[in-house]
Amino acid sequence: MCRLLGVVTRAPLPLDTALDGLVGPFTELSLEHRDGWGIAAGQGTGSSPLVVKGIEPAAGTDSWGRTLAGTVTDAALLHLRLASPGLPVVPGNTHPFTVGTVAFAHNGYFTPYDALDELIAPELLAGAAGSTDSERYFLRVLTLLRETGPADALARAAADVRERAAAYASLNCLLLAEDALYAYADEDPESEVSRRRGPDFFRLRYRVDEDRVVIASSGIPQPDDRWTVLPYREVLEIRRADLRVTTTRAAPHSGPAPSTTLAHVNRR
């Protein structure tokens, strides 16, 4: 299992400044989630995100600290990996994954890892860098992005996993796009991991401050009066232009369009 952290700020900042108060607690999680780390940072319009990865634990790794201090951006996602049994700790399996202007990171697993292969555009599948279920999840999202928006693509890809996989623990993920950062929350409460780690392990929570919005996995301090739980099977959208935050409830494949609720408009 893994840990996720995302941030969008009103103006570009060094990541360690944008994540003030969160870097230390999040880095400490890599003492358990020690099978690599990755950071994707948004760049200018039309540009691919800057992606830096390592296959060692983030804690005590110079490149982790240098990347946080030296990367100036208004939007980023961070990932700490705890590899699923049998999956090698190699760069190709290290999150985030990126294609074009989009980056993606996943917390959880599903089996078999190739459950979505028939639903992925052949040229995307041929370009897979590694052997993880997480990358296949991303490639299914990319395939859906050719016909729909990011929130719907995330919800539909997750529904495909639930329909086709033999088992899954969590489908929590972050998607960094040119205009927004998206988060999706989903869990099987009957999975072995959920029963062993407890009901809070796969919770995603977000926090809206005056000049930033953050979304994070459990494991760092998240006092209830400052953090809001992202309900399961909902998509959170944080707009990079104005920090506008909305949540969208996923609809069934054959049901009506998803419902969208304004969660917060962060004004100057």
From TrEMBL:
Renumbered residue ranges of the record's region Disordered: 247-268
Q: Does the keyword Translocase apply?
A: no
What keywords tag this UniProt record? Answer: Glutamine amidotransferase
Domain called Glutamine amidotransferase type-2: residue spans: 2-249
Record carries keyword Ribosomal protein: no
What CDD domains does the database record attribute to this sequence? Answer: YafJ (cd01908)
Per the UniProt record, one Pfam family is GATase_4
UniProt feature, compositional bias: Polar residues: 257-268
Specify the protein name.
Class II glutamine amidotransferase
Q: Which organism is it from?
A: Streptomyces prunicolor
